[in-house]
Amino acid sequence: MSKHVLAQNQYGKAENRIVRIARRGGEDGAWHEIRDLNVSVALRGEYRDVHLTGDNGNCLPTDTTKNTVYAFAKEHGVTSPEAFAILLAKHFVTSQPVIREAQIRVEEFAWERIPVPTRKEQHSFVRQGQEVRTAQVTYSETTGLQVLSGLKELTVMNSTNSEFHGFIKDEYTTLQEAYDRILATKVTARWANSATAAADPEHDWDGSYRKARRHMLEAFAETYSYSLQQTLHAMACRVLDHVPTVNEVRLNLPNKHHFLVDLEPFGLKNDNEVYFAADRMYGLIEGTVHRDGVQPVIATSDWITA
Amino acid sequence: MSKHVLAQNQYGKAENRIVRIARRGGEDGAWHEIRDLNVSVALRGEYRDVHLTGDNGNCLPTDTTKNTVYAFAKEHGVTSPEAFAILLAKHFVTSQPVIREAQIRVEEFAWERIPVPTRKEQHSFVRQGQEVRTAQVTYSETTGLQVLSGLKELTVMNSTNSEFHGFIKDEYTTLQEAYDRILATKVTARWANSATAAADPEHDWDGSYRKARRHMLEAFAETYSYSLQQTLHAMACRVLDHVPTVNEVRLNLPNKHHFLVDLEPFGLKNDNEVYFAADRMYGLIEGTVHRDGVQPVIATSDWITA
Amino acid sequence: MSKHVLAQNQYGKAENRIVRIARRGGEDGAWHEIRDLNVSVALRGEYRDVHLTGDNGNCLPTDTTKNTVYAFAKEHGVTSPEAFAILLAKHFVTSQPVIREAQIRVEEFAWERIPVPTRKEQHSFVRQGQEVRTAQVTYSETTGLQVLSGLKELTVMNSTNSEFHGFIKDEYTTLQEAYDRILATKVTARWANSATAAADPEHDWDGSYRKARRHMLEAFAETYSYSLQQTLHAMACRVLDHVPTVNEVRLNLPNKHHFLVDLEPFGLKNDNEVYFAADRMYGLIEGTVHRDGVQPVIATSDWITA
Amino acid sequence: MSKHVLAQNQYGKAENRIVRIARRGGEDGAWHEIRDLNVSVALRGEYRDVHLTGDNGNCLPTDTTKNTVYAFAKEHGVTSPEAFAILLAKHFVTSQPVIREAQIRVEEFAWERIPVPTRKEQHSFVRQGQEVRTAQVTYSETTGLQVLSGLKELTVMNSTNSEFHGFIKDEYTTLQEAYDRILATKVTARWANSATAAADPEHDWDGSYRKARRHMLEAFAETYSYSLQQTLHAMACRVLDHVPTVNEVRLNLPNKHHFLVDLEPFGLKNDNEVYFAADRMYGLIEGTVHRDGVQPVIATSDWITA
User: How far is CA C109 from CA A69, C39, C71, in A?
Assistant: First the structure.
């Protein structure tokens, strides 16, 4: 088998589900904060032997990477997905010579408090469902630290102020031009943070997340849209305009089609009131926008190198 | 085949996804309200021929039931899942003699507005993810109207104020007694509304939904729990106490286990701070509570009659 | 809260995932058989105290019910989902006076062998994906044993020999009559076994499963269909005709619509060749057929009592 | 917004579900063949205007790309996922100057015949569930054609012949060495086909798929494993050894943990017989193996460029 070459490889424990409770004082110590994470670890390095002969002498078990996640949550707390992932990525690379690069991916599920008027202690929560926050941190011996942030499953809709016309008509085109349509999408967004932010131990990751999220939502709502591409571009630019530590934004926007139902056969006029919300097929619009002079780093496809 | 008997049967179009936009005035007519529903229709009646010989003379096509859903949304609007389902159920039974009973099930997905400070028009929305509202309306020629309401996928957590001990120990018991644990569950709730409420064309279904939801959440948060059963009972009773038009509540509460991670091997003390959130297996606690003197009607199992 | 009545309730550990390996000899003991199950336990009985006061004195922990599943797999093996569930259900009811009834639900995932021509030992498997086998066993102190078997997620298609016409046309009907259509469905089937079969410790559950499955498939393929209801009836009758220990069959058949794509705009004739496979909405046809003289027991709806 | 740069972008219709029926003669023309596909289109090119101003003059609607998929299925048939995707990719790039590159992704769902002894016509099918076949074809004006093939959701298990020991022990390591464990994984495989195969209109894509699949399964079954990495490497090499038109293989192998259940508390010895099949967390092993002298092209991560 020596004629075959082992190329990129990585391994680790994926989807470590962790809930971290912190007590923030209060008169009886019962003011709780929670962070609810799904943490995945991938290690890259010198793993030729384990692949070719099953010699595990260079292999830190995936079980150990899991233990490290839980132990670090206790030792260091979870101040943000990004900060927690940076700690983990650096630990793996610096603790074992064989590990040259570590990538930590985090999903965070948000909770809000259940208001309980009758007491001061606060330790009851209801899970928010609007979106999942994401982070991906890569730390490499040679190229240093890279921090991506993002979100997914944020579903938004404009019930008007969207048109689509003036497009190419070829022999397979039957689409009618639209002058007032619903525009709905489920946002997946990733953004690359500057090296300065990544290196700053005081960087406010929660704050920059909230800002990026808010400005994307506002740009979606405020843009009178002639195409979903235009809306995508506006959303990405708005984040770059308002969050100075973000250098690059990539958006993946499925066009969640809402088709106006034909009610003519029943003697009814459908004046943009009744829509069928379709599952599949759907348009899929993807794009990257970055600051001038910056090299884009976010992967552009989930299958193939460009 | 005449020796076999056709028993209960039903048919209809399931999962009709419908978005209904209403314009509520504003200076430019651009204050939009949306209702986002998934509507399923089941018809019951005299369908022996279609089963035995494929004679469709008594069969209203499922496609027609779908058309009816969309046409009714235009003609009557959607003031609430329950009110919309009542209209549909009555229509099917009264419009075709062969249809003796109709059951309409609705899921409703909630949206909230994206705040847009720069304009007065409001037609931008972000989907809430906390829970799905449900309704089930059955209208029968002989037994009349029955309206169930409910919700599902409402995930809640108390990070303390939960214990579990004093239980039976048999030869297969290894569980340690717990004096401070996380209690988390994903609530599925159904409640039966009184005949009076069902018959009242002015009944405020959105209002009673909000009240039931709020009191379940508060009961979950305020109950110092010695078992999930006790919490279930408190939640159901609270709804009965506060929503006079509800006669019966059934809850399905998976115990979403959060296991305290053993950090002793790493020289760390885990003082109820770091938990592993498990997927499966899970405890599953189900129960019905109803007003005295009322006959329970909500099905108790999804597979078998009692 | 004494004015409210606790009605039907049950609890137990759900979705215990278990793989049981058995070595069936061979020259080196390496002929392995596997059973891969998902087992859920529900206990019913005298649980008033645990609900009203949190007194767990009558409560066998759900964790113990999980341990029992695993211990029984070792002690008794898994000869079939039904036989294993019968053992468990009887154990719970007979071992604790407070438990009056136990219901065990099982899903079984099938595996087939990976052919390895180079060796005699057989311990390599690939998971089959066609369907999930199901069983539900209820054992009650008062009413004894009830055994349901079934399957789900068995997707089938006839690419011709299906028509649909002659149906009711009302004011909301736009459907065209069809004289040659695809008929596709994802079968969920449950069947009730006779008390004799349930009581017979030698009953061949795997054999009756294979027979029921085969005859449903053949009936689906051989029936020239004028409605999915007719096909449903034929499938149920065929099982009753060929499996004498089955008394009742209930089928849940979503009509997985395949719409003929209109290719006329492109100058192409679509002679039943190119279809769009839709996700939602879908027709949903459900029905029970039983032997004459038998009382049907399979639940007819997942939400509400009839 | 001129200070921001639009970088990689693409768009098209995703998840076009298509069933293509072909009649292969037989005495009455009723021998049917089916191909059941999920086809996604992504177009890349000169789309600056549509993003910056919403001018759609360069934009072929995603709806048109959908129509093209269905029309091509009629005009050209579907001889294999790869061949169909090549036709589509070339069409888009050659038909519109603005489109510089097209990527077509296909999932194929397999069906097998329902045996019907009583007739010669064959048009009844049951869907196989073992795996989904995948293909991805990229055609670029400048770099030409690239064809990836693959599969996903192929779940396999060895119930013995797997060990794991000799690994690094650091301060967070608690894992015990294992000398006989279950090895189970759900295979996602992608392989890159040679330019020669891609350019050959007669290439037997179905044949090379079957060969790659068979040899991966055999390598999994026959490899006595000291690590999942070793098994991964053996599987990839086996494909390269037996399928000469494949240049590169990438595997994504989650380690589906089966934990031996501790039955000691119940006085039972668990001699590798009873396992708990866990959902999450899981080890995740990924790697690429390619022929010497070949440049790897399959993306190594779904989030970030290396």
Answer: 33, 11, 20
Closest CB from C174, C265, C279 relative to A265: C174
Q: Which amino acid is it at D52?
A: L
Q: Average pLDDT in the A154-167 region?
A: 97
More confident call, C41 vs A121:
C41
Co-location of C181 and C234 in the same domain: yes
Kind plus residue range of the DSSP H or E element containing A7: strand A4-14
Residues 34-63, chain C: which have Cβ within 8 Å of B? 40, 42, 47, 50-63
Give yes or no for a contact between D277 and D255, defined as CB atoms under 8 angstroms apart: no
B168 with C55: CB under 8 angstroms?
no
Q: CA C159: distance to chain centroid?
A: 25
**B75/D contact by beta carbon, under 8 A:** no
Query: Is there a domain that residue B13 lies in?
Result: yes
Q: Which residues of C touch D125 (CB under 8 A)?
A: 156-159
Mean pLDDT of chain D: 94
**Global pTM value:** 0.96
Residue C29, pLDDT score? 63
Annotated active-site residue A258? The verdict is no
Whether residue C125 sits in one domain with residue C36: yes
On whether both A106 and A179 belong to a single domain, the answer is: no
- Cα–Cα distance measured from residue B166 to residue B160, given in angstroms and rounded to the nearest whole number: 18
How close, in Å, is residue B28 to chain C by CA atoms?
34
ipTM of predicted assembly, 2 dp: 0.95
Known catalytic residue at A123: no
Percent of chain D with pLDDT over 70: 96
The pLDDT of residue C306: 33
Q: Assess B105–C contact: CB distance below 8 Å, yes or no.
A: yes
Contact at CB, A124 and B220, closer than 8 angstroms:
yes
Mark whether C162 and C108 lie in a shared domain: no
Tell me if A92 sits within 8 A of D168, measured CB to CB: no
The pLDDT of residue B1: 46
Mean pLDDT on D185-199: 97
Catalytic residue among C13, C66, C91, C233: C13
Chain B contacts of A129, Cβ < 8 Å? 128-131, 153
Which among B64, B166, B294 has CB closest to C173?
B64
Smallest CA–CA separation between A172 and chain C, in Å?
6
SS3 A9: strand
Q: Band of the pLDDT at D303, cuts 50, 70, 90?
A: very low
Q: Which residues contact B295 (CB under 8 A, 6 or more apart)?
A: none
- Chains with ≥3 CB–CB distances under 8 Å to A: B, C, D
From the centroid of its chain, how far is CA C133? 6
Domain total of chain B: 2
Section A107-135 average pLDDT: 91
Residues D202-214: tens digit of each pLDDT: 999 999 999 999 9
Per the annotation, the verdict on A3 as an active-site residue is: no
**Exposure string over C264-283, b if 16+ CB within 10 A, otherwise e:** eebebebeebbbbbbebbbb
Question: Does residue B31 sit at the A interface (CB-CB below 8 Å)?
Answer: no
* Cβ–Cβ under 8 Å, residues C86 and C147: yes
How far apart (Å, rounded) are the C-alpha atoms in residues B42 and B63? 12
- Tell me which residue has tokens 């154990």: C91
Say yes or no: A165 and A179 in one domain: yes
pLDDT given for residue C2 in this prediction: 53
**Of the candidates C171, C265, C280, which has its C-beta nearest A174's C-beta?**
C265
At residue B110, does pLDDT exceed 60? yes
Domain boundary among C121, C142, C163: C142
Asked if residue B84 and residue B208 are part of one domain, the reply reads no
Of A124, A130, A156, the CB nearest to B129: A130
CA–CA separation, D10 vs A301, rounded Å? 10
Range of the domain at C34: 1-142
CB contact under 8 A, C233 and B6: yes
